[in-house]
Amino acid sequence: MINNPIIQSIFCTPIYINYMNRDFSKKEIASINNLKKETVTNHSNTYTKDGYILNKPVFKNIKKYIEECCKDYLEKIISPADLVKLEVTQSWLNYSDKNQYHQEHSHSNSLVSGVLYVNVHEENDSVDFLDSPYSAISPNIKNFNVWNSKLWTVPVKRGMIIMFPSSINHRVKVNEQDYTRISLAFNTFLRGSLGQGLGKLKI
Prior knowledge:
Elements: E1 16-19, H1 26-34, E2 39-41, E3 46-48, H2 60-78, E4 84-96, E5 102-105, E6 112-119, E7 126-130, E8 151-155, E9 160-165, E10 169-172, E11 181-194, E12 201-202
């Protein structure tokens, strides 16, 4: 007989989830729907040509909420002693009609990325996060957990925000419903002064 073991999880990947404490306004929704006319279509989904949509005055309250979440993420997860802020660098809208999807990808030139969900089918929509494809062994798994899973699926809801390291691969499955899935995505980077001595960096 062995004693019950202690199993610790180290070097974790954070997935930050929060929820708006209000619904989107009629003006916000009207602008979001109207911006679908100014989009680029790739092989799997459609996104706005404007990569800085949070700079539009109509989205000032959404931008304020996202900036509050960035501040919260910075304090709770990165927790720097340096005087820095997590600043939104780009922002755009994604539109996925029936049979469209988001292919597996990560975000370059960004530290933390995020998605705010505007229109979703709450019984079906989710986002998948994927681990590195390399594995020294590949046994058949009896019970999946945080240590042996290569894929983690997070269900999403309207008004929900998810933030995660930009380097982690993620994807969204095919929209099988007869509606348009809409999300507002954004990238961030640190702004301020990092480190000290010869390792000091001002951004």
